[in-house]
Amino acid sequence: MSLMAALALPGASQAMAQNVQGKPIRAEQLANDNWLLHVSPQETAKYLLLPVEDKAPEAHLKLIVDNQLCRNIDVRMALHKIDYYVPVVLDEFRGHNLVVQAHMNIDRSNRGGVGSEICWANIRLSDAFDQTNRERFRPLYHHTPVYGWMNDPNGMFYKDGTWHLFYQYNPYGSMWGNMNWRHSTSRDLLTWNDEGVAIAPDAHGAIFSGSCVVDEKNTAGFGAGAVIALYTSAGDVQSQSLAYSTDGGRTFTPYAGNPILTADVPDFRDPNMFWNDDINAWNLILAVGQEMRIYSSPNLKDWKEESRFGLGYGNHDGVWECPDLFPLPVDKLNGKQLVNSSTNNSSTITKWVLVCNINPGGPFGGSATQYFVGDFDGHKFTCDSAPQVTKWMDWGKDHYATVSFWGAPKDRRTVLAWMSNWQYANDVPTMQYRSANSIARDLGLFQNGGEWYVSVKPSPEMLAARGKKLKSPTEACEMVVDLKGSATITLANAKGEKVVMTYDDDARTFSMDRTQSGNVAFSEAFPCTTVAPTHGRIKQLRIFIDRCSIEAFDADGHVAMTNLVFPSEPYNSVKVKGGKATIWEVKSEK
Ligand code: FRU
């Protein structure tokens, strides 16, 4: 069988095979299920291409350079078939002896003999790594990694017209593992450029989620304007580490004094920091077990614990993760100037929003984003609501790890979510890459029944991306539906696959049913109907479709719902009962 034939993959999601070239390299089998492969210092190939099978167990690979352990990586080395290849970039090892020592992690009891795995016969040295898109579900105007696995957005910041997005990334497979921060940049929040890996695991552990700030005043001593990243080093324990960049976020140097913050608890992660004028210092919020810890610091390195929030508040059916804490100004509500009840004047009222992603425990199972609204004085967060009140930022099943950009222009509070759910994120029917981000959203506040809620609207960049009007839906479009009362919107394709969205004007709910949306069989947790309260009447819906996702918002931002779908062909018809749809092309460069 030729190599290309081996890569002509079964499964509808694969539009074309990966083009793999290069020369074979011999691996030697050692005792105890270990393999050894030697790349000579004279080798000029750019990549060592490793054959991967998603369903294989992780083999543990040591990259040993001139006798020193340089990196540990876990790779699902192909046993029965090659799903795709991943590259080890050889540039940094050129001129040195590279030895790859692999320990296979196989239950040999039901396999024919030792060493029959196809991975070892198919490793390649190559100057090319084919990154051409092979996935028909790859979104056109959402951010995705060029290859490999992605989860949480990390360290997002805005500077000089560029939006920076880092993300949890596995360079060695399309399932979770080997956490790095990979980096993308965009000038319009729709078209993203891949900037490569920014922070790779070190001796303190894998690089879990965290945040970035631009240290304009040089408080940390790495230079005015240095980009400072704080992330969780996930080794035997979780601790917080710092890395700095003096080239605008392209490359980072881990701080020699890491870790900078430690604790004696297992779930201690996802640091999110911001400058707070009220205390003329930095604040940091961290997820610690079932609560958030809040710290302050003059220099981003020495952190003092100020307070804790969360025990007894909101939803606790899962692990608290990926926090954020930010002010949202409210100067007008329903067109009326607000009066600050404590000062009795009409100056801007500011509420603080504490974001707490939770997994599991979401309203429809698995992961979701809850939040609390209250006050924060740089030391302590006080929640406005009663402890039993739970508020969700998005009522779909595929909206997690939501955090905001540092330094967004014009005081915008712009967020991105990871558009998946830990219940099935590793199983969705793509292979070259897994997971996309949501479209960017801008947050505000509204009041209903005496409670403050966060409003979620598509960022203005989405309006700018509107292209021509369309007669029927396409795989990448926006539908604007004007409603007269209760309405049913049915998106369908010729295969009979459909997504049914319903606005119930009496119950004041909006729902999305994806039980017959296409491929729903890859996880029992996938088929479902999600339902949201609309906090009053809704008059208009904006529905964004991009190959494998549907994101619905009402015009006032009172309801947001994000769900993945995997139709066998794009939905190309829409029927609206009780309203009128206008469909727009969404312009993107892909
Ligand atoms: C959330 C999360 C974070 C952690 C990261 C690891 O999805 O579990 O808490 O830092 O993913 O990839």
Describe this structure in words.
- It is a single chain.
- This protein is mainly β.
- The protein has 3 domains: 16-126, Jelly Rolls; 148-458, Glycosyl hydrolase domain, family 43 (Tachylectin-2, Chain A, 5 Propeller), CATH 2.115.10; 466-586, Jelly Rolls (Sandwich), CATH 2.60.120.
- The protein is 2% helix and 48% strand.
- The protein is built from 3 helices and 42 strands.
- The strands form 9 sheets. Strands 34, 35, 36, 37, 38, 39, 40, 41 and 42 form a 9-stranded antiparallel β-sheet that branches. A 5-stranded antiparallel β-sheet has the order 2-3-8-5-6, with no helix packed on it.
- Strand 16 (238-245) and strand 17 (253-254) form a beta hairpin.
- The model is unreliable at 1-14 and 337-346 (pLDDT under 50).
- Beta-D-fructofuranose binds at residues 151-152, 168, 179, 208-209, 232, 269-270, 321-322, 401.
CATH topology of the largest domain: Tachylectin-2, Chain A
Poorly predicted regions: 1-14, 337-346
In what range is the share of β-strand residues? over 45%
Overall shape: it is: globular
| Helix and strand composition category | mainly beta
Mean pLDDT over the residues: 94
CATH class label of the largest domain: Mainly Beta
Write down the domain tally.
3
**Architecture per CATH nomenclature, i.e. the level-2 architecture of the largest domain:** 5 Propeller
What is the straight-line distance between the termini? 34 Å
- Helix proportion range: under 10%
Ligand set: beta-D-fructofuranose
The major beta sheet can be summarized as: 9 strands, antiparallel
